[in-house]
Amino acid sequence: MRAAPALPSARRGPQPASVAPTLGEYLRGRRARLQPADVGLVAEPGRRVAGLRREEVADLAGISREYYIRLEQGRHHQVSEQVLASLTRALRLDADAAAYFYRLALPAPPTSLARPVPPVSDLVHRLVEQWSDAPVYVLDRNQDLLVANDLAHALQPSFAVAGGNCVAAAFLAPPEGRGLEGWRRTARAAVAALRYHGDPNDPRLQEIVGDLSVRDADFREMWASLDARPLTFGEAPAFVEGVGFGEMPWQCLDVPGGHFLLVWLDPPGTFASRAIAHLRRTLRAAPTAATAVEAAPGCTATAAPAPAAATPTALPPEPPKRLLAPDDFAAYLDRAAAAGHAALPAAS
């Protein structure tokens, strides 16, 4: 993970972001994102309010304006589920945003915060090992990589450069790559999943959010949007040297105990099919040299020598020596970003 640049002592740099908003902060943030037309209201000429007014939300939810103001100011005890349901409708929250909203508003049982996530089971290790024809890896709720097969290592060696974390890997992208809509889409998905799945009391979540919010303006903007969505499925832009630039689909499966198994798919006749087939051939033909690729649901990757057999490995504390040095990795990302921009006219 790249270190944040030193700031002059006379300046006050960005401060670590809060891991979880208060209920009032969430209400204000969601209210600011809605325009009158979104909820069937007519905006009067010269309106200067960004988003909806407090009284407009209160009226839409069918609660008193005074009570809604108390909610935003944090002057409340426990909100009823009936009020939460009304606010969910008023703020046009979808199912994922509503689930996160309820978690903020309703106190959780004390034991849920202290319950540790168990280690990856032997059964899941064997599943990853047997799933050798596709890149497969296991993540925890903070999107730290726990187990990966060799195809996944060939596809995603940037995890080691980013300290083994998917979200941090996304923000290794250079400015040229960040101009791509595909990068913003996948980075936003990773950040939203970090908020949705993360436990605000987890020191690891606090470390990730604190580090990225201090050193990366794009992360600060995405985290401040308050988006919260689970890891489910999607597509991510990928650059594979020897194959080209395109979209690769992925599917995330819940593993009991708080883990997630992410599988990269290769539908016949697609860029993903050609890319994964190329990686398979590379692993078979040259067990000490892997192909370079940048891809992930919010992550980036680069070239790395690959081991001979497709067996899952848990990441060691230190980055494996078979991965590229950070300087080589940065140069590769520059090439990947250039390839992505070159592919845009053909994609449109």
From TrEMBL:
Q: Which Gene Ontology MF annotations are present? A: DNA binding
According to the record, the segments passing through the membrane are none
The HTH cro/C1-type domain covers 47-98
Q: Where is this region: Disordered?
A: 1-20
In the UniProt record, the signal sequence range is none
Pfam families per record: HTH_31, MLTR_LBD
The protein here is known as Transcriptional regulator with XRE-family HTH domain
* Species name: Herbiconiux flava
Query: Mind giving the lineage of the organism this protein is from?
Result: Bacteria, Bacillati, Actinomycetota, Actinomycetes, Micrococcales
